Amino acid sequence: MTLRKRIALILSGLVVFVLAGPVIIFIAQGYSFDFQTNRLVSSGTLVIKTEPRGAEVKIKGQAALKTPLTKRFVQPGDYFVEISKDDYFPWQKRFSILPSQVTFLPKQNASIALFRKSPSEIRNQQSINGIYSSANSIFYLSDSGHQIYRLGFGLENPVSVASTTTAFNGAEIINSRMQVDRIEFLLSSHGTLWFVSGAQAKPFPSLAHADFGHGRETVLGINARSNLVEVGSATSTVLAKDVLSFSKAGNDLYFISRLASGESVLYYQRSNNGAKTMTLIPEFNSAKIIVSPQNQIYVLLDTNLYEVNPVRELEVAPPLGKDGFSNEVNQNLTKIRSGVNDAYWDEAGDLLAYGNEHEFWIYNPLSSASNQLLVRSTTAIASPVYHQSTGYAFWIEGQEIKAIEVDGSGQPNVYTLLRVTDPKKIIVNDLGNTLAVLDGQTLHLFQIR
Fold first, then answer.
1. What is the tens place of the pLDDT at every residue in 290-342?
2. Does residue 35 carry a pLDDT above 70?
3. Average pLDDT, stretch 28-48?
4. Which of 65, 108, 145, 222 is found 20 to 30 A from 208 (Cα to Cα)?
5. Using a CB cutoff of 8 Å and minimum separation of 24, what contacts does 325-332 make?
């Protein structure tokens, strides 16, 4: 090769480098060329994960790769994605790609939960009157009512965890507590409260709003004289008088008591250190106190749900105004919603769940969207369950078991998972892949994912 040709080749390479270098640098920095506007634009990245993996992703109707998917250099704009996998319900969503940003579907560090179109039955158990869930297990009474069984969400056989000579026909398990060597249960049977553990069965016929006591084999409840008592094998201690409702959180007690003046006050008692006044409570006929593990306090008064704000202790109870509230009450109670039939603290989701026969809500005061409606139906709903790890809520509607995606964008995916004859209650395991359905008196376990 002559010197002239060598020089020409070097100069040509320099020209190509000068022209292509900026383009390469821009592409490396996340820019792409928009042929519609004929200019370089800052692109974004799309990340999609599904459980199970291997689902097909179509964006704007064009097939792409399988999940998990990381698609770079996506031009900014609005898109529609369809995700499908054989034998699973499809999942679809509208989303936006922003310049120089990563868009995660469904969100960062999460996977889209895909549900089976035809859930497979793992097992069924006959002649069951009711089910209760705790510690990722299902508890139920035997046909004779003498034994309580624990059933896992797999193929293992039921295990007897309590066996007594007393029959509890038609009983309902209302609470359980794990001890080192056994499990304690509270049962409600024809208006009588029973404490059951191992071979023991003790009746507490006059206690209302019962819960486990502070000590082993003790029970808390409100007796016929409206006293909050703790009852053990041979003792009965009055903890507070004129109590209308209470809740236990660890070793702490929260209770509503009526004063001689007729006013109702919410108290708390820390480990037997004496009761402290928190706030006045407006007039009500029925009350329920809900306490979170972080000591967030909520009260359901008739059908009105309130949050109790962090407050100073009241030295003297101020008089109520014409509206049934004092200034202290207005400051200390924040109404969340009216028309509420029940509320409970969801430990798995670390939030308050509440609703009525037509609506199901979740409330998280630390979230930007603190109050979120999950389900609203003209048909009565029952046994609603919020499952945080899958990002779905489940409920019974007529003879159908349904699931709805908890989606802040307002475009949730909704599925009918099952149709059964007489659904009474549903339970979803911790992994969100197994659904327990009490259909009449038969317990079915279905694999839904």
1. 999 888 999 999 999 999 986 545 444 444 444 444 444 456 899 999 999 99
2. no
3. 67
4. 145
5. 325/280, 325/282, 326/280, 328/279, 328/280, 329/279, 329/280, 329/281, 329/282, 332/278, 332/279, 332/280, 332/308
279/241 Cα distance (integer angstroms): 17
Q: Choose among 181, 164, 173: nearest CA to 134.
A: 173
Residue 68 domain-assigned (yes or no): no
Asked whether residue 409 is domain-assigned, the answer is: no
Specify the 3-state DSSP secondary structure of 445: strand
Last residue of a domain, one of 319, 340, 361: 340
C-alpha distances in angstroms, 85 versus 56, 69, 114, 297, 427? 6, 14, 8, 44, 26
| Structural domain contains residue 279 | yes
Q: What distances in angstroms separate CA 28 from CA 15, 38, 69, 72, one per listed residue?
A: 20, 19, 20, 11
The structure's pTM equals 0.85
Q: 244-275, pLDDT tens digit by residue?
A: 999 998 889 999 998 888 889 899 888 667 78
What is the three-class DSSP state of 16?
A: helix
Between the alpha carbon of residue 304 and those of residues 246, 318, 339, 343, the distances in Å are: 17, 22, 6, 10
Q: Which domain holds residue 20?
A: 1-42
- Is it the case that residue 174 has pLDDT exceeding 70? yes
